[in-house]
Amino acid sequence: MSDNESVGEDTGPQVDYDEIGEDGFKVVEKEIYEAYQKALQQAKLEQEEDAEEEVKLDYDSWEEEPEYSENVMKYVITYGIYSGEVDSENGRNGEGTTWYPNGDIFKGSYVDDGKKDGEGLYIYKSQGKSPQDELIESIAKADKAPARLVQAIEDESWEKAGIIASEIAAKDHKVNVQPEQAALVLQFGPYPFYNGKFMKNEMVGEGLRKYKDGSIYRGEFSANERHGFGKMKYNNGDEYAGDWSNGKKHGEGSYFFKQLNHAKYVGKWENGNIISGEWIMSNGIVYNGNFEDNVPDGEGSFNFGSAQLKGQFYAEKWIPNAK
Question: What is the Cα–Cα distance from 177 to 136, expressed in whole angstroms?
Fold first, then answer.
């Protein structure tokens, strides 16, 4: 739906609804949007149930003078505000930026009057910041931020900047933040995000996703889910590289356990769980066999390098085969 279609006739006082500000947004729409966001945040702080719906229905609780057209207000709190290219009917088409009613932001390409399509960056502001991401943001913005960090950011040397910020977090704040997570906060901001390809509003193809808990996925997507080959680095340092299906580990893949001195599972996965393959331990011992709920189960064998022991796991207990 285009702006003109949604706004309709103006029933309020004479106001220039088409005036564009320096940032590319319509001035009136931005005023309405900011007033709505302020009221929404206040309602959430007061822990009102269904805060978003309540604020949307109660214009008088946040509307400021002058009183704008109700149609314009409804449009803004339904579709958000937009700055960018439009088609002949004023619909969102081409490169642009949308601030959505829930606070989320999209910067990228649109087709078919508002569908995200092509390369884009979607920022999930509505999910908020994690304490770790907020810390990295504050380190970068500090008045006495180290010169080497400031220089790395100015040079857009994100990997280097992430390492420096991660070291500061650990040394000065006793908080463990993965360097890659810190780098992405400095590059894209402190909120969860997706940066990659869209097709008709859905995440598809190659993309990068940072989750609120600090986990990071690089790989293929389909219908907004991790699907195809991809690598996930979890917030505890564990890593998975392999196949995905509908958001779950599915197919061939390897899982590295950071807390277990990089022991790893290598094998076949199904619906998020390994079902067969190898458990390669940090001491060099290798278990090969079946798994259930991510633990060895059923027939298998242990390879000690110079010897092999066959048997089976039953109720998480190893039972060697009779000689």
Answer: 8
How far from chain centre, in Å, is Cα 290?
A: 33
H or E element that contains 42: helix 27-45
> CA angle, 122 as apex, 116 and 128 as ends, to 5°?
145
**What are the strands, taking DSSP E only, across 200-316?**
202-210, 216-222, 225-233, 239-245, 248-257, 263-270, 273-280, 286-292, 295-303, 308-314
- Among 252-256, 276-280, 302-306, whose mean pLDDT is lowest? 302-306
| Helix ranges (DSSP H) in 48-178 | 51-57, 70-79, 131-141, 147-154, 158-173
Cis peptide before 66 (omega within 30 of 0): yes
Residue 99: partners with Cβ closer than 8 Å, 6 or more residues away: 25, 33, 80, 81, 82, 105
Helix (H) / strand (E) containing 121 = strand 115-123
Task: With beta carbons less than 8 A apart as the criterion, state whether 196 and 203 touch.
Answer: yes
Tokens 């996965």, residue? 269
HSE (CB half, 13 Å, CA atoms) of 162?
A: 19
- The neighbouring-strand residues paired with 242 are 230, 253
- In sequence order, the 6+-apart residues with CB closer than 8 A to the CB of 235 are 178, 181, 213, 214, 215
At 149, list the tokens. Answer: 């960090």
Choose from 11-20, 77-86, 304-313 the range with maximum mean pLDDT.
Answer: 77-86
Give 38-47's long-range contacts (Cβ < 8 A, gap of 24+): 38/62, 40/103
DSSP designation for 20: B
- Predicted pLDDT at 49: 63
Cα–Cα distance between 120 and 140 in angstroms, integer?
Answer: 25
| Token pair recorded at residue 26 | 């319509």
